[in-house]
């Protein structure tokens, strides 16, 4: 009856039993949640070499340490090293003072710089390393890798391995037609100029999926290029930075040359360049063995400088015409007649205020700035941006202007 129920409800023993049941249930729920979290993260840590999602969960945001996380393929430099002579060190403080900043060394160190190299008239006039970096330390380049890829596409065309940049991508990757016949309308030029019309969505929230995650952390980037690409609009109409484009071009180079991209870069670019050190290209995975075409090239800053000097000299360096002069002019020019952008050509950015100058650009402020009118090449590698992109470009521009005025 009601009295009996009331007595039980007020019984301290009954209350303690209910309290114990609540604690037990809560403990079971917490144990389940903890076990689930541990199991998920245990799976993720164990799966970083075979799961894109696991990499995104464990490695999280990209950083310069990714060079040590991904497997890589060596790019031998060869036996002959081209000269990169040291000149008298030049005072580069004036351009920085114009920006209201302090001494250059202090500015570079304070803004997460790892290496800063300036070449004027083929002479090293400034060379600094920070954060335990040294001259022979490989620096990862992120999207500077795209400019390397653009270079070997030009070489492959010159060798007749690729007929033309107006070839449809399906001439080399016909499997794309099985999913959508419209891929036949996308040319190599559309891929190089970031106007392929392919969908590309970057996630604004930190989730372990999306196109940016797939193209950066993917464990089989060939499969991603073949299966995850979706046509969103007509090619050649709109500029959209898209990391599927270099993946497709990397497959074109592989198939056209019959070599891995790294082997082709080594034999056609790195050895003829007389690079000082072996480079490497990060791979998607040991199993798939495909270069991370969008971001994974690693080299020393002085070898990045050699690469920039080759472009400054219209594809020639140390007495060898490595890249066709016409390709250098076309890939770094401002002609927007055949593509929608005047500030971006074939995986090279154009300095809008000095359109005769151009630069390779990678995440966290990796730069190769080339100023042919001033006979200047500037290389900056960094752990992070430090300052925004256009502030770096303005500094490089002023440095090149200053050196040019000195003669």
Helix content: 40-55%
| CA radius of gyration | 27 Å
Overall pLDDT metric: 91
Q: What can be said about the biggest beta sheet? A: 7 strands, mixed
What gross morphology would you assign? globular
Secondary-structure element sequence?
A: HHHHEEHHEEEHHHHHHHEEHEEHEEEEH
Total number of β-strand segments?
A: 13
Strand content: 5-15%
Cα end-to-end separation: 106 Å
How many H/I helices? Answer: 16
What ranges have pLDDT less than 50 throughout 5 or more consecutive residues?
A: none
Strand order of the largest sheet: 2-4-3-13-12-11-10
Outline the secondary-structure elements.
Blueprint: H1 2-10, H2 12-46, H3 52-59, H4 66-69, E1 72-75, E2 85-86, H5 93-98, H6 104-110, E3 113-120, E4 123-129, E5 139-140, H7 144-158, H8 176-179, H9 188-192, H10 211-217, H11 221-227, H12 244-257, H13 261-273, E6 279-282, E7 297-299, H14 301-312, E8 316-317, E9 320-321, H15 325-331, E10 349-350, E11 358-362, E12 366-371, E13 376-382, H16 389-406
Parallel strand pairs: 2-4
Antiparallel strand pairs: 1-6, 3-4, 3-13, 5-7, 6-7, 8-9, 10-11, 11-12, 12-13
Q: How would you characterize this protein structure?
A:
With about 400 residues, the chain is an alpha+beta fold. Helices cover about 40% and strands about 15% of the residues. The protein is built from 16 helices and 13 strands. Helix 2 crosses helix 3, helix 7 packs across helix 13 and helix 11 crosses helix 12. The radius of gyration is 27 Å and the shape is globular. The model has no long low-confidence stretch (mean pLDDT about 90).
